[in-house]
Amino acid sequence: MSIWLVDAYAPPRGPCVVVAREPSPTSRRRRAQCKIGSFETTHPRQHVSNAFQTRIRFPRAAFAFAACAAVEASRLVQVAVAAALMSLDLRDTTSGVVGAVFNVYAGLPFDVVKVRLQTQSPTSVPRYGGLVDCFAKTVQQESVRSLWKGAIPALSSAIVENAVLFSANGALKRVFFGAGESLSTLDEALVGSASGLFSAAAITPAEVIKCRLQTYAHAESMGIWRCTQSIVKESGVMGLTAGLGAVILRDVPFNFCFFGLYDYYTAKFMDLSGIDSRRELHPLMVLASGGCAGATSWTIVFPADVIKSRMQVDTRLTFQAAVRKVWRVQGILGFYRGWSSAVLGSFPADGCLFLGVEMTHRLFAHFESNV
């Protein structure tokens, strides 16, 4: 690129003469070594490889390449985020909300029992002897309604979680695989695990409040707002994010197994029924596929859920401290306390979740075909 200069020796009364001065030999040599400005900025990798291939010897050139790479990387991230946002579909969000309502009211009694079994003191005489004993004592001492204790925060948590989960799942499929593409079981599992990152961040505050309300016998009189105030007073605003690491550790592998196994089970039912589309599956087969996927996935990730519950009830516990405390007092069996209630509850809850999701998609398809 030529540098334009005004000739200082132009006649004083005549017009200014503008001449193009060629780069000096030193400038040519440095430009050949650094290649600055000699290529299109298309991808950050091009800047990095150019920097290494030309063996940059000058700090300014290194900074120039780094700046170009950073700008291009930032641009690509913005494009990816914009593409994901543009790929959001209201049908995915609505189906997630409907599935969440089905999920909560079908599985909340088992969830209440699971949390109580997980968080009872291991050093004193256990308050509950097991799943059936916990159900019986809860109903006798606190009424049947207590089995749905924490329903409002549980419902809000489930709606947020599943709306985000299924919205992100649908958007990621369209961004990386295209609309209408049929995915393999592994692809379904990978997209599901990536979606779990978004849902984990969204649900943690509601999960903390739900665990507090489910654990304390007189929490119902406290209410959601007073429970939130109590958590903030004890641990600050960050107390509402207690157990986030454990939630991520639970949800990412859980959703990997959950979506992958759901795809696997529905494929098997489709083969048995001789049909080609999941939309044609009988609702009972959808219910069974979701239930089996949920029960299997919970078994795999249950230790992380135990740690998550401990951290959210006692917000002062760190992840490592919670693991050490369970291991020291209860051993390996402590990581599976409440497993039976979780697995028994996950079958109807997760079965109803996918049933709600699939039926909502079918309803949208029916309306679209008749419009």
Automatic annotation (TrEMBL):
It is found in: Mitochondrion membrane. Coiled coil: none annotated. Solcar repeats lie at residues 87-175, 183-268, 281-363. One of its GO terms (cellular component) is mitochondrial membrane. GO terms for molecular function: L-ornithine transmembrane transporter activity. The keyword Cell membrane does not apply. SUPFAM superfamilies: Mitochondrial carrier. Transmembrane segments: none annotated. GO terms for biological process: mitochondrial L-ornithine transmembrane transport. It is a multi-pass membrane protein. Its main location: mitochondrion. Keywords: Membrane, Mitochondrion, Repeat, Transmembrane, Transmembrane helix, Transport. PANTHER family: MITOCHONDRIAL BASIC AMINO ACIDS TRANSPORTER-RELATED, MITOCHONDRIAL ORNITHINE TRANSPORTER 1. Belongs to the mitochondrial carrier (TC 2.A.29) family. This is Aste57867_2522 protein. It comes from Aphanomyces stellatus. The lineage of its organism: Eukaryota, Sar, Stramenopiles, Oomycota, Saprolegniomycetes.
